[in-house]
Amino acid sequence: CIMDFTRSEESQSIQDLAAQIFADQSGDEALKRFDRHEIAYHAELWKLLAEAGLIGVALAEEFGGSGLGFTELCAVFEEQGRHVAALPLLATVVLGALPVAEFGSDAQRAKWLPGVARGEVLLSGALCCPDAGGHADRLPRARADGAGWRLDGTLDRVPYGLEAAAIVVPALVK
User: Fold this and answer.
1) Cβ atoms of 160 and 122 closer than 8 Å
2) Containing H/E element for 19?
3) β-strands 123-125, 166-168: how paired?
4) Which of the 8 DSSP states describes residue 148?
5) How far is CA 75 from CA 5, 7, 42, 67, 133, in A?
6) Structure letter (DSSP) for residue 12
7) Is pLDDT of 90 > 80?
């Protein structure tokens, strides 16, 4: 069985567009400002990526995304890494928006995903400490509490937590 891993023309176009935007906007000055804690991320670059449809590339069209997939999102990540740009892309899209798209309610999708695709809303996800051994025993417990949920427990890391409008918290349901 032979598998073809050649990128589609559309995927290559996404990568080319991302490469151009990152090349034009990335630079040492934004990284220096990030390193000095003057900025949390490169906001101007974030806005340009959103305008180009690259933040929402893996989100459904009904929420303002391109309806493509993870391969195209990885092309954007590749260019972010190539140009070393300080952005909340992993936190917002992978830890926040994609779990909401997959597991969130219709109301949650409608509330959060269009803003993410437009680059107006940052999301994040809480993470377990990787050196703590097994993760299941470290997850908070969730139990129904009236119309909502009560979480008991702690998680160690929330990338871009201060900037996030909402945080996805994995939990075990009691």
Assistant:
1) yes
2) helix 9-25
3) parallel
4) E
5) 14, 10, 19, 15, 32
6) H
7) yes
User: For residue 131, what pLDDT is reported?
Assistant: 56
CA angle at 46 for the pair 45 and 47, rounded to the nearest 5°: 90
Map tokens 């908070």 to a residue: 140
pTM for this model (two decimals): 0.89
Helix (H) or strand (E) holding 149: strand 148-152
Alpha-carbon gap, residue 97 to 17, rounded angstroms: 22
Distance between CA atoms of 146 and 129, rounded to whole angstroms?
30
Using an 8 Å Cβ cutoff, are 50 and 56 in contact?
yes
| Dist CA 64 CA 61 (whole Å) | 5
Measured between alpha carbons, how far is 160 from 66 in angstroms, rounded to an integer?
A: 24
